[in-house]
Specification:
This protein is α+β, with helices and mostly antiparallel strands. Helix content is 38%, strand content 20%. The chain has eight helices and nine strands. It has helices spanning 17-20, 30-50, 69-86, 99-111, 171-182, 188-203, 217-220, 243-254, and strands at residues 2-3, 6-7, 125-127, 135-147, 153-163, 167-169, 185-186, 208-216, 231-236. Helix 3 crosses helix 4. Mean pLDDT is 87; it is low at 1-25.
């Protein structure tokens, strides 16, 4: 078996020949090794089901962009082909033989393109010549991102609001900022804060709020298999932290949307 470019004689079940025969390895019996592995698996599952984030910033290595996108596609294609082989899929089948390449291109150029700062949308700001001093709310912005614990979709809506400090932003840029931070492995809490922090920086105001209501396929298609629940997260900043302003925003958000 080949792992990261090196050969390994370890069987697919992760146990060495000595462990399979019950011989003590590194001072542990086969039973003890399997027990430790089970404990580790349980811990990994608990972290994944908790949906917690380790930081506001998406965890990235310093060399994340040393490889160009085309090389990343080539490498992911090779590794995903190996995953499909391990699963026992027949890659000579017409329907499957192109899947490794399709998945690789999808990862790099579509669903995870927000990992690259070069793809961040350039904000378009205008002077607030109308002197509009009330909140502006852009509601029901589509959220389509991927859970970083299981790499399955999180799908929902974002509601974004701000009060101008002298500048206003093009409406479509609000959607594009949400989309940019969605295009990376995420947890919903981090996604909410990243969008809010970016808007505060661009608009040079603390008066920003972001609310996200989304369904997690890692909850509905695995684990507890709950297809009815959704998760709501919010970031209220500046004037939006005041109860009256917060309640005004929530009234707008819960009103039926305009249909065309």
């Amino acid at each position: 078996m080949k792992l990261n470019g090196t050969s390994s004689s370890t069987p697919l079940n992760g146990a060495s020949a000595n462990q399979q025969e019950g011989v003590h390895t590194n001072g542990y019996s086969r039973h003890e090794n399997y027990s430790a592995m089970a404990d580790q698996d349980e811990l990994v599952d608990e972290i994944g089901d908790a949906h917690g984030a380790s930081s506001v910033d998406t965890p990235m290595r310093p060399d994340a962009f040393d490889l160009d996108d085309e090389l990343k596609v080539d490498l992911i294609e090779e590794h995903f082909r190996e995953i499909m082989n391990i699963l026992g899929l027949d890659l000579t089948d017409d329907s499957l033989k192109g899947s490794p390449r399709r998945v690789a291109k999808m990862y790099v150029k579509e669903i995870f393109r927000g990992l690259n700062p070069a793809n961040k949308p350039a904000p378009t700001l205008f002077d607030n010549k109308f002197r509009y001093n009330e909140m502006l709310v852009e509601k029901d912005i589509t959220v389509q991102t991927y859970c970083e614990h299981h790499f399955v979709p999180i799908i929902g809506k974002a509601h974004v609001a701000y009060i101008s400090s002298g500048k206003v932003i093009g409406l479509s840029k609000l959607n594009r900022i949400v989309e940019y931070f969605c295009k990376r492995p995420q947890v919903q809490e981090r996604l909410t804060v990243q969008i809010a922090d970016e808007l505060k920086k661009i608009l040079e105001t603390e008066d920003v709020a972001v609310i996200i209501d989304a369904k997690h396929l890692c909850v509905s298609t695995r684990g507890v298999h709950d297809v009815n629940s959704s998760t709501v997260t919010a970031s209220y900043n500046g004037k939006f932290a005041e109860e009256a302003t917060k309640q005004e925003l929530l009234r707008y958000v819960t009103q039926p949307s305009v249909t065309i």
